[in-house]
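At this stage, I put together a protein sequence along with its fold in token form, as given directly below:
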Amino acid sequence: MSKVQIIYGTTGGNTEIVVDKISEVLSEKAEVIVTRAEEFDINDINKSDLLILASPTYGHGILQREMIPFYNKLIMQDLKGQKSAVVGLGDSKYEINYMFKSAQILEEALEKINAKLVCPSLKINASPIPFLDNRVKLWAQGLFDHL
């Protein structure tokens, strides 16, 4: 059975809700391990068939606070060929130019460390709740081909 590692940062809980839905869907075809960024051991970064990183965007385009130390360790790795995907949350009530900056930051980091992005990032504006059973579920199901 394939193994999926999801690493995420959350403050208000929206990213966690999305990650939980993704985990539920992917659990149909894979072993899924979900870990908060501040609890993740970077030495386990390349022990899965698919790596998913998820973070909301804060301020003027920065990662969620617990994702920052994780990111600093991540960019020191070499994940050559590691299948990866990204989830970025944002809110257009803030600066629209920075709304999904977390997704861009994580995508660029994965590319820099030679990981392979297997699909476009899932980006959600404002509350994810209306999107859980459609957009989030469909995005997660689209990952089945990469397991």
